Every structure is written in C-alpha cells, then in structure tokens.
C-alpha cells in the first residue's frame, strides 16, 4: 500500500543551549509564537540568562513549560512584552475540557519570569485556569501582568491555580491584576506535602466568585498590600 509508506518525525535541532535575548512575534522574530519558544527551551535548554521580548499582538495558544536544562537562580528565563506595556501582548486560549484547562502550565518548571503581559482564558465552558502550577513548580515570578480568567461559579476557573500533591514553592506574584474566576488565587497543599514561601504582594484581585485568595498548608506565606474586591 503506497499510501502508508511514508513516516513522519518532528526533529528539533539545536546549535547549543539558548543564551541571551530573543524575540517572539511575526516580524522577523527568532520565534513565531510562545509555543515555538517553549519547544526550544524544552529541547535545547539554557546556558545563561534568557529573555524573550514579545512583539505586540494577540497570541491564540496555550503553552506548557516543563523543567528546562540549565535553568537556575542565575540562568533565569524571562518572557516579557517588548514595549513594557501589559496590554500590548495577549496570550489567550479557550479551553474546552479539563485536560486542556490552562493558558500557561508550569509543570515542575523553575526559574521562569513573566512580566508586563496579559494572559487570558476565554472559554465558554467554565474552564478558566490561567496560570496552572503543579509538580513542584518553584522559584517563578509574575510581575505587572493581567491574569484574566472567566466569570464562573465553577472551581475550574482561577487566574492562579496550584493544587495539592506537590510543593510548588518560592513563587512570587507582584503588582498583577487578577480578574474573575471562582478563586482569584487557589494555592492548596496538604499536611504531608506543604508549600513554602510563596508571596502575593501588591496585587489587585477582582471579580472572584468565592475567595480572592485561598491558601492551605502554606508555610512562611506572605500576603501583603493586595487590593481584593468582588466587583
């Protein structure tokens, strides 16, 4: 059967680990979108601090970032709006099932930085996790972003969601706008697997149906100078 005689394999070729500054976007950029940049991180790793400057526009996709070889407190990985304006770059996704319910999924990923962008869930089915963290995702930082969930009375919607089962720790959220969802922040641990030193500082949290910030079994938690309201 000649019709099935061809096999296909996707291969990512790396000249070496990523290092330095790159661009994401359509205009002569190093990577066309977030997914392509995330794929390069996954396969190539990093050998120095890496910054992705994202060109203005709307990116209709969702991404998962897993542990990146070479990432550390020194070799951090930053995604940021090229203009420094958080409404100029929008990463958005409409989830349709529980399995794809995220805009940004940090699956055990560490030392990521997200700055001056909008991340938006647009589902019509109450699937509204914007930043999903699990597997021990730690040492990640979110600053001056808009994290927009959906208006929902379902627990499947939150701008920030970190469930139990792994110690997602040392994550920092500073000066972000967290909008809508069932929770503004859901950060639930357990007595056997606690989370440590997560910080929520100076954020504006609006429109959450249930709790603005819901945390459980978090040690050395800092919640300070946040503005939380239900409208």
Please specify the SSE layout and strand pairing.
Elements: E1 18-24, H1 34-44, E2 46-54, E3 57-60, E4 63-65, E5 77-81, E6 89-93, E7 104-107, E8 112-115, E9 118-121, E10 128-134, E11 141-143, E12 146-148, E13 157-162, E14 172-174, E15 177-179, E16 183-188, E17 195-196, E18 199-201, E19 204-206, E20 211-216, E21 218-219, E22 222-224, E23 227-229
Parallel strand pairs: 1-2, 2-5, 3-6, 4-7, 5-8, 6-9, 7-10, 8-11, 9-12, 10-13, 11-14, 12-15, 13-16, 14-18, 15-19, 16-20, 17-21, 18-22, 19-23
The outline comes out as globular
Give the fraction of residues assigned to helices: under 10%
Output the number of helix runs: 1
The helix-strand sequence is EHEEEEEEEEEEEEEEEEEEEEEE
Chain-averaged pLDDT: 95
Oligomer: single chain
* Backbone CA Rg: 18 Å
Poorly predicted regions: none
Report how far apart the termini are: 63 Å
Largest sheet: 8 strands, parallel
Backbone structural class: mainly beta
Summarize the structure.
The protein has one helix at 34-44, and strands at 18-24, 46-54, 57-60, 63-65, 77-81, 89-93, 104-107, 112-115, 118-121, 128-134, 141-143, 146-148, 157-162, 172-174, 177-179, 183-188, 195-196, 199-201, 204-206, 211-216, 218-219, 222-224, 227-229. The chain is mostly beta strands and 231 residues long.
């Amino acid at each position: 059967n000649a019709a099935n005689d061809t096999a296909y394999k996707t291969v990512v070729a790396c000249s070496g680990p990523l290092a330095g500054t790159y661009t994401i976007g359509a205009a002569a950029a190093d990577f066309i979108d977030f997914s392509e940049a995330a794929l390069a991180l996954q396969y190539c790793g990093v050998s120095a601090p890496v910054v992705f400057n994202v060109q203005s526009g709307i990116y209709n996709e969702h991404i998962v970032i897993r542990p990146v070889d070479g990432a550390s407190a020194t070799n951090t990985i930053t995604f940021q709006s090229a203009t420094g304006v958080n409404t100029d770059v929008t990463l958005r996704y409409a989830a349709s099932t529980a399995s794809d319910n995220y805009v940004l999924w940090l699956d055990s990923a560490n030392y990521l930085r997200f700055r001056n962008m909008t991340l938006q869930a647009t589902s019509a089915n109450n699937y509204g996790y914007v930043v999903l963290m699990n597997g021990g995702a730690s040492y990640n930082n979110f600053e001056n972003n808009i994290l927009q969930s959906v208006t929902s009375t379902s627990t499947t919607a939150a701008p920030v969601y970190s469930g139990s089962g792994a110690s997602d720790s040392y994550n920092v959220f500073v000066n972000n706008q967290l909008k809508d969802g069932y929770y503004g922040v859901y950060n639930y641990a357990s007595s056997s697997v606690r989370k440590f030193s997560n910080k929520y500082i100076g954020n504006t949290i609006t429109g959450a149906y249930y709790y603005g910030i819901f945390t459980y079994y978090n040690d050395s938690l800092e919640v300070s100078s946040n503005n939380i309201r239900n409208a």
